[in-house]
Amino acid sequence: MMLRTVIAVGALLLGTAAAQKNDWLIVPGQRVGPITASTSRADLDTLFGKDNVRDSSLDISEGPEAATVVFGNDKSAALAVTWDKERPVSIYICFATQTGPCKWRTASGIRIGLPLMELQKLNGKSFQIAGYGFDGQGSVTSWRHGALEEDPAACGHLLVRLTPAAELEGRPMSKQEASSLKQSQGDRKPYSSGSMAILDLNPMVSALELRFIGPGCVPK
Question: Are 110 and 158 in contact (CB under 8 A)?
């Protein structure tokens, strides 16, 4: 009886320790909560509990892709992890919502639903985003050496995408917004977040994805 009690208490402590590792923090270049470039599929069951993890598929721009979903029943917490053999490639954060709420965020304050002006304040200056109407539209292409600049030698890169407010709100664009969108389209060059055309669109952070693609990643 005593041995069973000790085992039960030990299991409870291990479960609590695993839960405590999830701080809802995104660390660009390193992790999403306890998930790092070296996390395995089996690790997810240990870190989050088997009941909170399932293998599924994620419908992304290039079509359905096999993924492991964590907290799939909670849009404000859901993660989708894609793999290359046994190592994670990308983590799609709160992938079921473009406006939030989302529990995951960076220490600096980047989160789903953050308005462009607030993101610009966090960076301390304007940054560059990809034009609309093409693959990767609205993605930050450069922080221009601002406060949000990532370590180029790190493993993970945090992709931040912004979507015009009208699209997120499900309403028709005003004439001014439609004109500004036309001025902000194209994949030949990035656009400044401080340009009038981009500001008129009032875009917000609609997608966050940590990609393990940098030189500091664990060899696969």
Answer: yes
The residues pairing with 25 across neighbouring beta strands, listed in sequence order, are 105
pLDDT at 15 over 80: no
Q: How far is CA 158 from CA 27, 41, 48, 166, in A?
A: 8, 21, 22, 25
Could you tell me which of 82, 197, 76, 36 has the C-alpha nearest to residue 131? 197
Length of the chain: 220
Helices (H), 21-58: 41-48
Of the chain, the percentage scoring pLDDT greater than 70 comes to 88
For 70, the enclosing helix (H) or strand (E) is strand 63-70
Q: What does pTM read for this prediction?
A: 0.88
Report the 10 Å Cβ neighbour count for 88.
Answer: 28
Model pLDDT, residue 61: 62
In whole angstroms, what is the distance from residue 139 CA to residue 162 CA? Answer: 6
* Rounded-to-integer distance, Cα 46 and Cα 16, Å: 11
**DSSP-derived 3-state class of residue 42:** helix
Give 45-68 pLDDT, tens digit per residue. Answer: 999 999 999 999 888 766 788 999
Res 218: pLDDT: 60
DSSP string of 78-146, one letter each residue:
-EEEEEETTEEEEEEETTT-SS---S-EETT---TT-BHHHHHHHHTS--EEPPBSSTTTTBEEE-TT-
- Sign (positive or negative) of CA dihedral 171, 175, 176, 180: positive
